[in-house]
Write a structure and sequence with these properties.
- Keywords: Cell membrane, Membrane, Transmembrane, Transmembrane helix.
- The chain is elongated, with a radius of gyration of 19 Å.
- The protein contains 9 helices and no strands.
- The protein has one domain.
- It is 80% helix and 0% strand.
- It starts with a helix and ends with a helix.
- With 203 residues, the chain is mainly α.
C-alpha cells in the first residue's frame, strides 16, 4: 500500500494527494495516516512544498466528506424516525431515540465535527449525522476544514520530520484507530443491551 501511494504521488504530484484524500473518506482501507506522512516525506526530499501539501490534503479531505453528508441530508431525520418506528423494534430503536440523537448533534455537532475529523475510524462517518441533522453547509465546511487541516498538518509534519521512516506514523496511528473504533462499537453494544433490559422490565 505504501509503495502504491508513493508511486501515485510521484506520478500525479499534488493531484495525487487530492484524489487520495477524497477517496480515503469513502474507502477507509486507504488511510490518511499513510497518505499525508508520505506526502510530508516527499516535501522533505524537496519534491513538494510542505504548505501546499497540507493545503491540498485538507481540501481533499473536506471534499471527501460531502458524499456522506448529502446522503445523510437526503435520507433525513423524518425518514429515519419513520423507519425506526416501523422496523426498529428488533434493534430496540425508536423514533424518539433518533430525535434525541439529532437534538444532541444539534447541540454538540460543531465540536463533534471539529474534533471527530481528527479521530481515525470515525472521521468520515460523522458526515452522515451532520447531513441528517441538516447542519448548515457553511458551518459543516468550516469545522470540517479546521479539523481536517489540523489532522493533515500533524500527519504531514510527522512524515516531514521522520523522513524515510514516515511509514512509522501509520504503524502507531493504525492500531490506535482500531482501539477507538472498538470503543465505539462496545458503547453501541452496551446501549443496545441497556435498551433490551429496559424494554424487558416494562413488559
Amino acid at each position: 500500500m505504501a509503495d502504491w501511494v508513493q508511486n501515485l504521488m510521484d506520478s500525479l504530484g499534488y493531484l495525487g494527494i487530492l484524489l487520495l484524500m477524497i477517496v480515503e473518506n469513502l474507502f477507509p482501507p486507504i488511510p490518511s495516516e499513510l497518505i499525508m506522512p508520505s506526502a510530508g516525506f516527499a516535501a522533505a526530499r524537496g519534491d513538494m512544498n510542505i504548505f501546499v501539501v497540507i493545503a491540498v490534503g485538507t481540501l481533499g479531505s473536506v471534499v471527501g466528506t460531502l458524499p456522506l453528508y448529502y446522503i445523510g441530508r437526503a435520507f433525513g431525520e423524518e425518514r429515519l424516525v419513520a423507519w425506526a418506528d416501523k422496523h426498529g423494534k428488533w434493534l430496540t430503536l425508536r423514533g424518539e431515540d433518533i430525535r434525541k440523537a439529532d437534538d444532541w448533534f444539534d447541540r454538540h455537532g460543531t465540536k463533534a465535527v471539529l474534533f471527530g475529523r481528527m479521530v481515525p475510524g470515525i472521521r468520515s462517518l460523522l458526515s452522515l449525522p451532520a447531513g441528517m441533522s441538516e447542519m448548515p453547509m457553511p458551518k459543516f465546511l468550516l469545522y470540517s476544514a479546521i479539523g481536517s487541516g489540523l489532522w493533515a498538518s500533524a500527519l504531514a509534519g510527522a512524515g516531514y520530520l521522520l523522513g524515510e521512516n514516515y511509514d512509522q506514523v501509520e504503524q502507531y496511528v493504525g492500531p490506535a484507530s482500531k482501539v477507538i473504533l472498538g470503543v465505539v462499537v462496545v458503547a453501541a453494544v452496551l446501549w443496545f443491551l441497556k435498551r433490551k433490559r429496559e424494554q424487558g422490565a416494562k413488559a
